[in-house]
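Feature request, filed as a ticket because there's no other form

It would be nice if the structure record came with a short human-readable summary line next to the tokens. Right now we just get the raw output. Example of a typical job, pasted below so the devs can see what we mean:
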Amino acid sequence: MDNCFFCKMAKGEVPSNTVYEDDDFRVILDIAPANPGHCLIIPKAHAMNIYEIDPELLSKAAVVAQKIAKKVKAATGCDGVNILQNNEEAAGQSVFHFHIHVIPRYKDDKKFIYKTMTQTHEELSAMRDAIIKA
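Raw output as currently delivered:
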């Protein structure tokens, strides 16, 4: 896409703090990180989200995410790592070019806490059936 900022960044047309690059991806430090060391894995080929990305490229992205998670943990000394990928605005996607966040986490950083809910066995069974049917 000609107007996609992440396409331009992934292709090196926009300056970034690149920590890794191969033929398919550029991994950069997020300019508005959740924690220091927060990286973005950006495919060079445009896809808006997980629904559109080529399955083979998606598989490669998981391998890159593992590699970067290990490097981020070693570099930051964090207690854990979130691998996060948002799809559509309701899920928090603000840049509509598929990308994966690798976020260093610390035991008491209290970020990304969400409230869980309780469902009955019947509700869970109905949801399982709906997902299988879809």
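Something like this underneath would help us a lot:
The chain has three helices and five strands.
The beta strands are 18-21, 25-29, 39-43, 80-84, 100-105.
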